[in-house]
């Protein structure tokens, strides 16, 4: 029997960070029409790509510096994140950030943690036009049921075959719903808890990354090196 290697797919907004940064930006700058778009994403009446792209198109590119500064100043990392990374390095577990967030706040926030750029998957931004345009470098593959993820988490997960990897997802919201149905082990909070319960899917609820570390040890996916 082949021993499958653990791999972690970790969300950013509301997971690595305490708050959802896109929502925080919209609440702070209050562009007209943003609430309708975010509600459409949450109730899945529009795709994530349509909603996130539409929200940022409500903001002028001339506000770039103010928006970037607000996002970075507003950032708070969830407790235990550094310890989770330390554990992954000690155990030689691949750790990937799979985020529906945007490059201008994802990369600067993660830079101090020494996470290599090739371990980070997120959306990109273009401030050259009158309005902010979001770019989608990690599009859905043909097997994605949504075909509008923006940053397609299931496409990234499928690069790690189920017969070779024990796939672990850590997330909190609508961008994690499809991925949670694909992996072996789910760590959930917030909206993802509700969705897992609705679908009858097994999951472990977490409040911080110390919870995740303890459970990974308890279910013997990692040793005691961390």
Automatic annotation (TrEMBL):
Enzyme Commission number(s) of this protein: 3.1.3.87
Superkingdom as given in the UniProt entry: Bacteria
InterPro entries xref list: HAD-like_hydrolase_phosphatase, HAD-like_sf, HAD-SF_hydro_IB_MtnX, HAD_hydro_PyrdxlP_Pase-like, HAD_sf
Keyword Repressor: no
Coiled coil: none
Reaction equation(s) it catalyzes: 2-hydroxy-5-methylsulfanyl-3-oxopent-1-enyl phosphate + H2O = 1,2-dihydroxy-5-(methylsulfanyl)pent-1-en-3-one + phosphate
Pathway noted in the entry: Amino-acid biosynthesis; L-methionine biosynthesis via salvage pathway; L-methionine from S-methyl-5-thio-alpha-D-ribose 1-phosphate: step 4/6
Keywords linked to the UniProt accession: Amino-acid biosynthesis, Hydrolase, Methionine biosynthesis
Molecular function, one GO term: 2-hydroxy-3-keto-5-methylthiopentenyl-1-phosphate phosphatase activity
Major enzyme class: hydrolase
SUPFAM superfamilies per record: HAD-like
Keyword Amino-acid biosynthesis among record annotations: yes
Listed Gene3D superfamilies: 3.90.1470.20, HAD superfamily/HAD-like
Pfam families given in the database record: HAD (PF12710)
Gene Ontology biological process terms in this record: L-methionine salvage from methylthioadenosine
HAMAP family named in the record: Salvage_MtnX
Similarity comment: Belongs to the HAD-like hydrolase superfamily. MtnX family.
Function recorded in the entry: Dephosphorylates 2-hydroxy-3-keto-5-methylthiopentenyl-1-phosphate (HK-MTPenyl-1-P) yielding 1,2-dihydroxy-3-keto-5-methylthiopentene (DHK-MTPene).
Name of this protein: 2-hydroxy-3-keto-5-methylthiopentenyl-1-phosphate phosphatase
């Amino acid at each position: 029997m082949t021993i499958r290697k653990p791999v972690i797919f970790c969300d950013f907004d509301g997971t690595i960070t305490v708050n959802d940064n896109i929502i925080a930006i919209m609440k702070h700058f209050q562009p007209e029409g943003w609430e309708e778009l975010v509600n459409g994403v949450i109730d899945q009446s529009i795709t994530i790509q349509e909603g996130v792209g539409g929200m940022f198109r409500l903001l002028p590119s001339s506000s770039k510096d103010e928006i970037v500064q607000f996002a970075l100043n507003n950032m708070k990392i969830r407790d235990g994140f550094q310890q989770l990374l330390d554990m992954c390095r000690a155990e030689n577990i691949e750790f990937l950030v799979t985020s529906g967030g945007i490059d201008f706040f994802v990369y600067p926030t993660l830079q101090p943690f020494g996470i290599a750029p090739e371990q980070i998957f997120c959306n990109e931004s273009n401030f050259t036009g009158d309005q902010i345009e979001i770019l989608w470098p990690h599009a859905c593959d043909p097997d994605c049921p949504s075909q509008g993820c923006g940053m397609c988490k299931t496409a990234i997960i499928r690069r790690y075959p189920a017969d070779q990897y024990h796939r672990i997802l850590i997330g909190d919201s609508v961008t994690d719903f499809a991925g949670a149905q694909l992996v072996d082990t789910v760590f959930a909070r917030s909206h993802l808890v509700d969705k897992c319960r609705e679908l009858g899917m097994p999951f472990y609820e977490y409040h911080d990354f110390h919870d995740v570390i303890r459970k990974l040890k308890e279910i013997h996916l990692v040793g005691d090196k961390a």
